[in-house]
Design a protein that fits this description.
alpha+beta, seven-stranded mixed beta sheet, two-stranded antiparallel ribbon, globular, binds flavin-adenine dinucleotide
Length: about 600
């Protein structure tokens, strides 16, 4: 049985030592003192460890079933869902006007990491609801907000997002689902959507589908797309449930992982829909949901890495094989625990330095979202928009890689089912694909985000890294050597890559697009390098002041040094690949592959 232990202490370190949340000038953050965040994290941790994690294997083995149009979730999911509702977890960061607790997005992310590590498939039911909530909250009419949001925040109703159709996933301009206006102001929605997560299930009383469809007069491509609310059950004036709408689940996908989450074919047979936001501006509204969802998927990626690493570590401490080359570490036993071997340590440190860096990066991004929304800060909004494809693409690629490395730590026990590692690998794999494949994230980064605001945001990022390194250089030779110098070098690589795109972008777009994936990874490494340098500083300061657990803080420094020495140099390789341009990628004729 796999283990899961909520990483409360690590999270507290990021929140208070790194981000110094209680001092941040963001409305609502003043309440986030150490005691308050500890209480929230501990409660979420208990739910994750005791309720959600034990259901992870059950969900994987039983999966969901469809019978006569009704989808049943695995045993125990309903009860766990009720416990989530009763604890108010679903509305943790939702607007109090609609029954939410109004906590910062950052706290929602910290709690979300635990829920995802414990049981990703289960947490998707409420994750999708949150995305749908956000789209209605931002773009819906007052009446729509009053009708749908309180029940979605409570969790008694859930939500979905319906973009994908059998012939299109990435290129949404091709969608065929159509919306026809009706005399009473509603719309008639007809078409088929596929791979809809949580499209049908038995956890909530109603399901509020958000559906992209084409309404007449919108023109070709994505310009013609509008967004509609299509409830599973119609909602009466008084809020009670009415007749069943003409939307149904036509099938469940058999798939590699996340078996506990229902992935549905959804048929809309003249269903009643309600327009959200402006006609023909559906992509804009959907982007609200997608941007939030992309950060959520980045979080899923590293959160699977977190739990995989925990299990790899437990195994490595326990499994006896071979002897330490420097002499027996366990002379009484027949062999030493495998954690003594340099190659096993390398593997574990690769995992540890990634997941802890990724957590810091994601929480930093979540704080930016709070700053953008709560302080109406346009610069924070622009920065998180730039970083969103990096969070999604880099953290899910590396998160998946982490689950594979963790599986490797266990040898054959990683491949067989008992230890659960193979499930983490299978579950993590989808994060690289949905919410826009990682290839598409890299195109978004290079094609749109790099040039946003005339390149001002990326320049601001470079300045921030440079300013940070300059401010802290020259105070401690070892810190300069181990943290700041590698960060400066990696940041130079990123700037050189940015320069390459600026020079090549217009005249040779294939050169830019051939290097976009490497750029996303190069950028991700610089972000994690920055996080580790900042965490190194925070750990050093706490040690100097005699605050906190010295062993924990020394471990932070050692893990950071590992990242800087063994992971960050990847930036040089990515730069080299980028600078090789389009030629190596584009020369081969399609027929010669
Ligand atoms: C388990 C699961 C759950 C899902 N949940 C949902 C959901 O809840 N709601 C929903 O709407 N959808 C959902 N999806 C769909 C998912 O978002 C899509 O599968 C994904 O966006 C990719 O689209 P596609 O599969 O059609 O791939 P395609 O668009 O066919 O792409 C195939 C490949 O070509 C690449 N490619 C395509 N176009 C370009 C281009 N212009 N330049 C470079 N490369 C390109 C892609 O990167 C990809 O590698 C889910 C899918 C799965 C498997």
């Amino acid at each position: 049985m796999p283990i899961y232990e909520a990483p409360t202490r690590d999270m507290q370190f990021v929140l208070h030592d790194l981000l110094k949340v209680a001092e941040a000038d963001i409305p609502g953050y003043e309440e986030l003192d150490r005691e308050t965040t500890a209480a929230i994290l501990e409660e979420a941790g208990k739910l994750s460890e005791n309720v959600l994690a034990p259901l992870n294997t059950v969900g994987d083995e039983q999966g969901c079933t469809l019978e006569n149009g009704v989808v049943r979730t695995p045993e125990g999911f309903r009860d766990a869902y009720e416990q989530m509702r009763a604890g108010g977890w679903m509305g943790l960061d939702a607007d109090p006007e609609y029954g939410g607790q109004g906590m910062p997005y950052l706290i929602g992310s910290a709690v979300g990491e635990m829920f995802v590590s414990a049981n990703m498939a289960f947490n998707m039911y409420q994750g999708l609801t949150h995305g749908a909530y956000s789209a209605i909250h931002t773009h819906g009419s007052d009446a729509q907000k009053r009708t749908y949001l309180p029940k979605m925040v409570d969790g008694i109703w859930s939500g979905t997002m319906n973009l994908t159709e059998p012939h299109c996933g990435t290129d949404l301009g091709l969608i065929r689902t159509k919306a026809e206006p009706q005399d009473d102001g509603t719309w008639r929605i007809t078409g088929q959507k596929i791979w809809i997560s949580a499209g049908e299930h038995d956890l909530s009383e109603n399901i509020i589908h958000l559906v992209l469809a084409k309404a007449p007069g919108g023109g070709e491509g994505t310009r013609g797309i509008s967004l509609f609310i299509v409830p599973k059950f119609m909602v009466n004036e008084d809020g009670s449930l009415g007749a069943r709408n003409a939307v149904s689940c036509g099938g469940l996908e058999k798939k590699m992982g996340i078996h506990g989450n229902a992935t549905c074919v959804m048929n809309y047979d003249g269903a009643t829909g309600y327009l959200v936001g402006e006609l023909h501006k559906g992509m804009r509204a959907m982007f609200t949901m997608m941007n939030e969802a992309r950060i959520g998927v980045g979080l899923q990626g590293y959160a699977q890495g977190v739990v995989a690493y925990q299990n790899a570590l437990a195994f490595a401490r326990d499994r006896l094989q071979g002897r330490d080359v420097t002499g027996p570490a366990n002379p009484e036993g027949p062999a030493d625990p495998i954690i003594v071997h340099p190659d096993v340590r390398r593997n574990l440190l690769h995992q540890k330095s990634f997941v802890e860096g990724a957590r810091a990066f994601t929480f930093w991004g979540a704080q930016m979202i709070d700053r953008a929304h709560r302080n109406q800060d346009a610069e924070a909004e622009a920065m998180i928009s730039l970083l969103t494809p990096v969070i999604k693409g880099f953290l899910t690629d590396k998160g998946f890689e982490t689950t594979v490395l963790a599986q490797q730590t266990l040898g054959g026990s990683g491949f067989t089912r008992e230890w659960g590692l193979e499930q983490f690998v299978r579950d993590a794999r989808i994060t690289m694909i949905y919410e826009g494949t990682n290839g598409i994230q890299s195109l978004d980064l290079v094609g749109r985000k790099l040039g946003q605001n005339g390149g001002k945001t990326i320049m601001a990022f470079f300045e921030m890294v440079k300013g940070f390194a300059k401010e802290h250089a020259g105070q401690d030779e070892a810190f300069d050597r181990d943290f700041l110098d590698p960060l400066k070098q990696a940041s130079k690589d990123l700037q050189a890559a940015g320069m390459f795109f600026m020079q090549q972008g217009m005249k040779n777009p294939q050169a830019a697009l051939s290097g976009s994936y490497d750029f996303m990874h190069l950028f991700g490494h610089v972000c994690l390098g920055l996080m580790w340098a900042k965490m190194g500083l925070a750990a050093r300061a706490a040690l100097a002041e005699g605050r906190g657990d010295a062993e924990f803080l020394e471990a932070k420094l050692a893990t950071g040094r590992y990242y800087m020495a063994r992971q960050l140099p990847a930036t040089a390789m990515h730069l080299k690949r980028i600078e090789s341009g389009a030629e190596p990628v584009m020369t081969l004729d399609a027929a010669s592959f």
